[in-house]
Amino acid sequence: MLTIAGGINFIVDPANIYREGRVTPITYIEALVRSKHGLYSKEGMFDERLLAKAVASKSFNADCIVIGSSHVMQISSERKSKALKNICDSILNLGVPGGTIEDHYTLAYLALQSRHNGRPNKIILGVDPWEFAFGKDLRWTAYSADYLIAKTEILNTGKVGVTRLSDTDVDETNKKKLANLINLEYTIRSIKAIVRGSPVIEAAPELDPSIGGDYAIRQWIISSVFEPILLMTPYHENVFKAPKSLNAIAIKATEPIVLNLAHELKIKVIGTYDPKMLGCLSNEFYDFMHPTAECLAKLRAR
């Protein structure tokens, strides 16, 4: 059974880990740039981090890059409820599900590589209660080679240049790829990809993003001429009504750390975990931790 699963995953390879497919994240983003109203991205069509990597490689001449978890995904300069209007003229959102500190390293580094004419010049880093720990989520391994380069550059030199991976790093990456061949989650994705058929690029019609359509639609940074900004997005008011819950405890401990860090490094902080401080209503959330664009439009600097 393991051999069959490994064979299916190697041949189908829904995330293009072992070879490039006919439709890749780069070809998808190139089509997105040319599209009039955007493109559909069906669930499972691409690994979200490889898609974010492709987006970062273009940078779209935005002046602000937003990096973080799903908490920041609704932050946009294109929606009716525009966010961060006093800070950003245009925003490129690189939020990924479950975004961790490894994603901050990787996507900030990749965005710097595509910098053109001094843009982007601000990186807004969404800070979640789990942010200050490495290895909390392994989804970043989708671009593990990029992460290793980014981490080496940022921690060792603070300057962008050519970095070679060590044999140990390469071996570790290859081991992860081999283990992924018998990964149950990846096997399920492969089977779903077989059922869906070959991926196609499908243009989206003009629509209201608040309604949707047929598918649910410092130091190193400063030395790189970016302005780093820390971002906290609010949680639903009900979270604070259970002060002994793990979420409430983590939020209460993390926000002072973020504020102290910003004060120490003399950088801006936007937002708070407390919805009342922003004036967010209880119906301006998708669930207990994901605010809507209407709530995020109320974000302001501290």
Task: Please report the number of helical segments.
Answer: 11
Question: For the report, how would you describe the main beta sheet?
Answer: 5 strands, parallel
Oligomeric state of the chains present here:
single chain
Share of residues in strands: 5-15%
- The coarse overall form would be globular
CATH fold category name:
Rossmann fold
- Gyration radius, rounded: 20 Å
In spatial order, strands of the major sheet run: 2-1-3-4-5
Q: State the name of the first-level CATH class.
A: Alpha Beta
Q: CATH homologous superfamily, by name?
A: SGNH hydrolase
H-E order? HHHEEHEHHHHEHEHH
- Decide which structural class fits the backbone: alpha/beta
Under the CATH scheme, the architecture is 3-Layer(aba) Sandwich
Unreliable stretches (pLDDT < 50, length at least 5) are none
Distance between the termini: 55 Å
Protein model, in words:
It is a single chain. The protein is of the alpha/beta class and 302 residues long. The chain has a single domain, classed as Rossmann fold, CATH 3.40.50.1110. It has 11 helices and 5 strands. A 5-stranded parallel β-sheet has the order 2-1-3-4-5, with helices on one face. Strand 4, helix 9 and strand 5 form a beta-alpha-beta unit. Helix 1 packs across helix 7, helix 2 packs across helix 3 and helix 3 runs parallel beside helix 4. The longest helix is centred in the last third of the chain and has 20 residues. The radius of gyration is 20 Å and the shape is globular. The mean pLDDT is 82.
